[in-house]
Amino acid sequence: MLHPIFAFASSVCLLLTGLLFPINLAGASGLVDTSTSIRLQLDTASSIHDDTAQISYLLNAGYAYRKGPHIHEPENPFLVRALKLAEKTGDSLQLAKVYNALAVDQRNAARYLVAVNYGKQALDLAAAKKDTVLLCSIYNNIGVAYRRLDENQQAFEYHMQALRLAEACHNWRNQAVAINSIGNIYLSLKQYDKAIASFQQSLEIEESHDNDLGLAINYANIGLAMEGKNQYDRAVDYFLRSLHYNQLINSVQGKLISYNNLGRAYRALGQYTLSLGYFMKALQLSGQIGDVIDVSDSHISIGYTYLLQKKYAEAYHHISEGLNIARSIQSKSLIMQAYQALQDYYARLGDFKQSMEMLQNALNYKDSMLNEKLNNRMAELDILYQLDRKNAAIQLLQKEAYLKELESNRNMLIALFLLGFIVVIIVGGYFVIRHRELKMHQKALQLELQSLRSRMNPHFIFNSLNSIHKYIWTNQPEEASDYLTKFARLIRMILENSERDFIPLSKEIEFLSIYVELENLRCNHGFAFILQVDECMDTDDIMIAPLMIQPFVENAIWHGLAPRKKGGILKISMKLHAQQKLQVEIEDNGIGRQKAEAIKMHKHPQHVSMGLRLTEERLKLLQNSLSFDLQQIQIIDLVDDNQQSCGTKVILELPVEFAYS
């Protein structure tokens, strides 16, 4: 099961939002989440003639919009309108407030890199206006975003900046938030005594200002730190205090968090009846508010508690119920937790085969979560790229406006302008040509680096380490050692070969052999490997660009042979087709491209093979730099006598050089 600290973190963030970005919801609390309602809200905003008042209304509405069912929407229509209005008015203080709101909005939507970007833009504007209170809020918001990115050092520095400013201007709320956030950093680093000291300090500030929400948050955080120190009795005491204040303010989310915290702590103390009571309360409350995620989580927690009581029928019922709900909402983290609980369930029953299958399912979802995290990070980087393009377009428009203003006086300088223009054309032409050469060289280096990174992607490393873990877990140390040795050799070869423009063909063959052997182990020896090298070739003399063949081999294994399960054959043939041309054929008897594409569209509809694309671009660069023609990559769909797909053949030509001749 996940560590309780991490299970609690996301819920605490919801409570912290009220502290980090206080907004009066009087104008937006009654929003109905429909397109009609959104249009009505925008129309209402347009009817407000005062720009500052209109921006304030839009900020409130934008905050309420993100709290509703639109949490994953890419844009917040109210904040988009507010940004346009603030840019139009040119009021840098209002623009800082909008950027700060955008930072909070994107953070709540789990786009933390984008949140940091908006926060820093707000910071520059607020600093110019010397608005200390706004600066405190911005520093804290950036710090929270960095903490969600696990950039604890950066987060600590921004929260300390917020704390210094808040103390200087006696802003107690941002003081409490900064100190609490620093405590959360210590908590994530498992420095529990420092975390408790910070939470106690924040608690004193909240208590002196009768802020029940702040008290509920800090008592819960102290309880988590006590739980981290295995002091579960003291953790229970603080969780009960947190529950008390959540009941005072009637915070449904706070009560739900408290019930789960208490259930987990009592379970650690072995008081299973009390633990079940609180988990049942959490289940009832989450059902009342229609929070399907918490319903699934409560069922899994209840099932695991029954499992510790050796009540296996009840345990299986609740864990299965939680798993079914998690599948229906496609919550990968909850599905992984359920499989982990089922692994323990089957192990306790002595059914180690089923236990191993459940563990493998959990590991698969863990891998999928890692890939999803990486994809989300790439999406955030794309958003940042689009924002940069937008800013560049705005700057270009401003420049054009300036040029139009100067155009009225250009007649006096026309002769000088023409002379200067000719000089610019000559000099610019030289620099354009030079820039193209440098750009081509730079692109070649970038593609080499990207190709290396795509080979050494976290997905491949993670699955390889899972295979090693599997051998160790099943008490196969020799197989684990052999796999690890080959895996280390493969990584070393990639790192060594990626530094060279050309390597001996023998080295590339050795790399492919080790790579195919490792992938075959992961596929449970599901295919045979045949390597045919023309006897007339001296593989030590022939030099080729490294890592050009592997992406096609990987494609054949995982999209052709892996779905076939067994009886697969992978055949690689190499021969010199003509002077300075190596012809390589990769043939498999897999399921064929059509079925593979259908599977890919079902599982990963947005996935694009980066390795194949980079390889094609490298081939084009090599063709231009070495001045000879290469055939296009040929992909042939193989069919049997009944015109049924029986595999795929890829034919590619690679440029070669010779070491000795």
How would you describe this protein?
There is one protein chain. It is built from 25 helices and seven strands. Helices cover about 70% and strands about 10% of the residues. Strand 4 (about 570-580) and strand 5 form a beta hairpin. Residues about 1-35 have low confidence and may be disordered. Strands 1, 2, 3, 4, 5, 6 and 7 form a seven-stranded mixed beta sheet that branches. By secondary structure, it is of the alpha+beta class. Helix 7 runs parallel beside helix 9.
Give the secondary structure arrangement, pairings included:
Elements: H1 4-20, H2 35-46, H3 51-67, H4 77-89, H5 92-108, H6 112-129, H7 132-148, H8 152-168, H9 172-188, H10 192-208, H11 212-228, H12 232-248, H13 252-268, H14 272-289, H15 292-308, H16 312-328, H17 332-349, H18 352-407, H19 414-455, H20 458-473, H21 477-497, E1 503-504, H22 505-522, E2 527-533, E3 542-544, H23 550-561, E4 568-578, E5 581-588, H24 593-603, H25 610-626, E6 634-639, E7 645-658
Helix pairs in contact: 1-9, 1-11, 1-13, 2-3, 3-4, 3-5, 4-5, 5-6, 5-7, 6-7, 6-18, 7-8, 7-9, 8-9, 9-10, 9-11, 10-11, 11-12, 11-13, 12-13, 13-14, 14-15, 15-16, 15-17, 16-17, 17-18, 18-20, 19-25, 20-21, 21-22, 22-23
